[in-house]
């Protein structure tokens, strides 16, 4: 069958390569260039390298715990049961994971993991090592790759997805479309995501009427450099022994959670933001106890970037702040990537597979991309489409030209609304205001005829339209969830106890 994969991060590359190996005719569309996106930026590693006393069952428990019990046990089981094969597949693809003295893959520790089980490459360059290896494998495959192609909308005929329409109006027909376009970090002004992460796949799915869920759960990474351009400082640094200190030098996380700096990300991020607001000064990440030699050896990418910026982190604590990092929600899928629309599949951050719940466990995202990317490819030949028990069908979103550009809309304005009202800490009034503002920006212009199909636009206009659609869906989902859960924190709403927490 002819398979169209949209997106070339770890999930899209895995799906394309696996489908190609299974004999499908595969076409891969890349918005920018191979090697762009979030995968190449991933520092910490990939979870699932189990050592003595560890197991998939324990990894599953940690995943459910971090997700505040909101994860899907079936999806989590698929994730952890596929971990060993996924890491083996990456090794076979040429990924050179860092090794311990005995030759085994070295295992790192990150927040909310009960044991060290994170495989890493090049110290803190795991994503780049994986991306480079998979792209090299791609170049020797028969996958047809088209770079610089912006997928704008899904083609739907008689209720079935049959391809995509690109920004220039070209139609790419396919028997199956796999969305692997990543997340939507650019909804927020402060993010670890690259410029191209504008929710394109989720917006396409929404416009086509596919079911989405859990969009209210946006993870904010707690340790992003607070000076200059945003730069992620991996959670693995805290796993190696770095601590968080307030402006007075106190380790405040000791009183915030039993796991202190290695508490789930949502807990750490809110604590960092709260302490910074209280003191009017950024929180500091103190890695000085690790020493210059170990920091340079274990975290060469971070070390080089901080030195380039004139920061000697072996001598001085580093100012950090939370920033939007990872979207746990997305297009609803089963464990094989099927969506509510026949012919449409989704994988990676674009999908809501159910593994992350309300808060992603560190280093599970790369694992999800490999495990579920392969599962999508393996299931493509299935003639029967599973009837998903979904949370209703997604809303049919209005035409792209419904965006009211004269009503105050701009990307900067949207990002301000999302950061201030749909960010780390949310209120009833703020969420209601955000939805109302986003509604006004989506209102059609009076007396403006609507084209029958979306017309070609500039990439920036298309991205803005996609961000607006996803922003409205996220704010609406956050307003509808009146309790606090994981990364969705509503001020004055009760917070449920963490699964397994004392």
Description:
33% of the residues lie in helices and 15% in strands. It has 502 residues and is of the alpha/beta class. The protein is globular, with a radius of gyration of 22 Å. The chain folds into three domains: 2-217 and 328-379, 3-Layer(bba) Sandwich (FAD/NAD(P)-binding domain), CATH 3.50.50.60; 224-323, Alpha-Beta Complex (Flavocytochrome C3, Chain A, domain 1); 400-480, Fumarate reductase/succinate dehydrogenase flavoprotein-like, C-terminal domain (Methane Monooxygenase Hydroxylase, Chain G, domain 1, Up-down Bundle). The strands form five sheets. The chain has a five-stranded parallel sheet, covered by helices on one side. A four-stranded antiparallel sheet has the order 11-14-13-12, covered by helices on one side. The chain has a three-stranded antiparallel sheet with strand order 6-7-8, covered by helices on one side. The chain has helices spanning 10-21, 56-66, 73-81, 83-92, 126-139, 200-208, 235-239, 265-279, 292-298, 300-308, 364-379, 411-421, 428-442, 459-480; strands at 2-6, 25-29, 46-47, 118-119, 144-146, 151-157, 160-166, 171-173, 176-179, 212-213, 218-225, 243-245, 283-286, 318-327, 330-332, 344-346, 351-352. Catalyzes the oxidation of L-aspartate to iminoaspartate, the first step in the de novo biosynthesis of NAD(+).
């Amino acid at each position: 069958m002819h398979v169209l994969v949209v997106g070339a991060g770890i999930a899209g590359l895995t799906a394309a390569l696996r489908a190609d190996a299974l004999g499908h005719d595969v076409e891969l569309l890349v918005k920018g260039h191979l090697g762009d996106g979030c995968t190449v930026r991933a520092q910490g590693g990939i979870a699932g390298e189990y050592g003595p006393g560890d197991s998939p069952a324990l990894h599953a428990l940690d995943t459910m715990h971090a997700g505040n019990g909101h994860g899907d046990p079936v999806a989590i089981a698929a994730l952890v049961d596929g971990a060993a094969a996924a890491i083996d597949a990456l090794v076979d693809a040429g990924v050179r994971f860092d090794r311990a003295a005995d030759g085994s893959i070295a295992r790192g520790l990150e927040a909310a993991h009960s044991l060290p089980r994170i495989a890493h490459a090049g110290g803190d360059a795991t994503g780049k090592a994986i991306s480079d290896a998979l792209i090299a494998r791609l170049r020797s495959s028969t996958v047809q790759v088209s770079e610089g192609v912006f997928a704008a909308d899904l083609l739907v005929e008689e209720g079935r997805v049959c391809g995509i329409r690109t920004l220039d109006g070209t139609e790419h027909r396919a028997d199956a479309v796999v969305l692997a376009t990543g997340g939507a970090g650019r909804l927020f002004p402060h993010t670890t995501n690259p410029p191209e992460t504008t929710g394109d796949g989720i917006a396409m799915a929404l416009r086509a009427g596919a079911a989405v869920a859990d969009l209210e759960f946006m993870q904010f990474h707690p340790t992003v450099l607070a000076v200059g351009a945003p730069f992620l400082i991996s959670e693995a640094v805290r796993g190696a022994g770095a601590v968080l200190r307030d402006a007075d030098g106190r380790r405040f996380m000791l009183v915030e959670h039993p796991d202190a700096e290695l508490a789930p990300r949502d807990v750490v991020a809110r604590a960092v933001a709260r302490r910074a607001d209280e003191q009017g000064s950024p929180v500091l990440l103190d890695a000085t106890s690790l020493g210059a030699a170990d920091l340079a050896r274990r975290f060469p990418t971070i070390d080089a970037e901080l030195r380039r910026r004139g920061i000697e982190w072996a001598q001085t604590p580093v100012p950090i702040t939370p920033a939007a990092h990872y979207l746990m929600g997305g297009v609803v899928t089963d464990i094989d990537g099927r969506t509510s629309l026949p012919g449409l599949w989704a994988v990676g951050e674009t999908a809501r597979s159910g593994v992350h719940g309300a808060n992603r466990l560190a280093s599970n995202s790369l694992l999800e991309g490999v495990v579920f990317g392969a599962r999508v490819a393996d299931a493509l030949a299935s003639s029967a489409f599973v009837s998903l028990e979904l949370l209703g069908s997604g809303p049919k979103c209005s035409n792209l030209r419904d965006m009211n550009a004269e009503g105050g809309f701009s990307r900067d304005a949207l990002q301000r609304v999302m950061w201030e009202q749909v960010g780390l800490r949310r209120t009833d009034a703020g969420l209601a205001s955000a939805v109302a503002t986003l509604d006004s920006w989506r209102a059609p212009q009076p007396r403006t005829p609507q084209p029958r199909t979306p017309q070609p636009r500039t990439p920036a206009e298309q991205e803005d339209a996609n961000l607006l659609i996803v922003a409205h869906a996220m704010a609406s989902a956050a307003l509808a969830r009146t309790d606090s859960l994981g990364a969705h924190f509503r001020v004055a709403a009760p917070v449920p106890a963490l699964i397994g927490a004392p």
